[in-house]
Amino acid sequence: MHETIDLEFISESLQAVGVTRALDGALFKQTELTYDVILDLGKFMQGEGFSYSEILEKLSLLSRRQVTCTADQLRKRIQAADKTKKKLVSNAKREHEALNSWLRKPFFHSANVATNASSSPCNESASTSFRLPSANLASTKTSFAPPAASTPEKDDDSCTYLHSQNMQYIRKLQQSLNESKEREQNLSIQLQAVKELYQFCQSSLNNLQSNHSILQDKLKAALDQTKSLNQEKSDLEAAFKEVKASQLYRRCKWLEKERDDLQDTTSEHNDLKERYEELKKEKINMQKYLSIARQKRDQYKAAANRIDKDTVNLLLRDGAPEVSLHNGNRFSDALRKTVISLQRRCNSAPLNAPSASKLLLKSCLGSIGL
Fold first, then answer.
1. How far is Cα 224 from Cα 220, in angstroms, rounded to an integer?
2. Measured distance CA(159)–CA(267) in Å, rounded
3. Taking every pair of C-alpha atoms in the chain, what is the biggest distance, in angstroms?
4. Which of 66, 174, 312, 329 is found 20 to 30 A from 360 (Cα to Cα)?
5. What phi and psi values does residue 140 have, to the nearest 5 degrees?
6. Does residue 109 form part of some domain?
7. Which residue in 67, 57, 65, 75 sits closest to 204, CA to CA?
8. Of the residues 23, 45, 66, which one is the last residue of a structural domain?
9. What is the CA radius of gyration of the chain?
10. Domain termination site, one of 13, 38, 66
């Protein structure tokens, strides 16, 4: 009775409820269901107003793949299925009770039986009328009618005809009873599948609620951590601003010091510039003094040369031995020393010195003993 659902089986089942789109063969893989369960479930869902996508979703729930409906929705659908099942079971029970009540009664009655003793049992039964409980048969909602109440009189085959009609009617009633039982069994299986689906959805919902609680706890912890991190960030920003302000203050102080040093350097530079200008003026004056000193030096050198010549000529004129300035070997040692001393004194003599000729003459005469 049970078989593994495959692609062809799913397609046939869904086509029975108006779905023509092909499905993935893995949708109901390794799922043990009967054709009737899938068929009845699809018809039930179509009767409940489910769309094509919803039918696919609910059928996919049987494969334990996903849960897309809430517990309340599934509970309402199960209640509707219970009502439908109860209604069908009630109708089947009434039909079953009516059939059993009718089967317990005799098929024939003797209300209109003929009194002719020579008539056969078949002829005797030909005059009878066929009765059924009309009230009970009305509740069975069958599509067939009982056989005719009477047959033509004096017919040899009337008994056989009535018996065959009654047996045919009984077989139809028994078939209807079997179908009712089968429908009840199918509805029970369908209801069990729906209940299992509801239990699975309920367990999935519980898992989702548990996961939701865990996620809420994690979210709360994350929010607390975020709040702590934000507070730490604020503290760090305040500390950074404080440190930055301190650094800026020290930088300003250093810049102020550098400014003061620069101002001192600028003042010193101005002083040095003024001193440089003064030194330039002093250099010009010194150059003038140096030029004058050079002129005086040249004058003294010229005067010394003249004094040397005058002294030699004076010595020669006073009877000194014959000498020559260019022949130093003929000078006596005393005279040569005297001439050298006189030349040195002439070179180092101050500007306001007395007459050089007299001094040189006295020195020269004193050195030679005159």
1. 6
2. 154
3. 237
4. 329
5. -80, -20
6. no
7. 67
8. 66
9. 75
10. 66
42 domain residue, yes or no: yes
Write out the two tokens for 241: 């601003």
Cβ-contact 187, 89 below 8 angstroms: yes
Helix (H) or strand (E) holding 33: strand 32-33
Asked if 6 and 25 touch (Cβ cutoff 8 Å), the reply is yes
pLDDT of residue 109: 42
Domain hosting 30: range is: 1-66
- Within a domain: 284: no
pLDDT, tens only, 185-222: 888 888 888 888 888 888 888 888 888 889 888 989 88
Q: pLDDT digit string (tens) for 216-264?
A: 889 898 899 989 899 988 898 888 888 888 888 888 889 898 888 888 8
**The token pair that represents 151 in the structure block:** 């047959």
The number of helix segments (H) and strand segments (E) in the chain equals: 9, 2
Contacts of 16 (CB under 8 A, 6+ apart): 39, 42, 43
Q: Domain total for the chain? A: 2
pTM over 0.70, yes/no: no
SS3 label, residue 4: strand
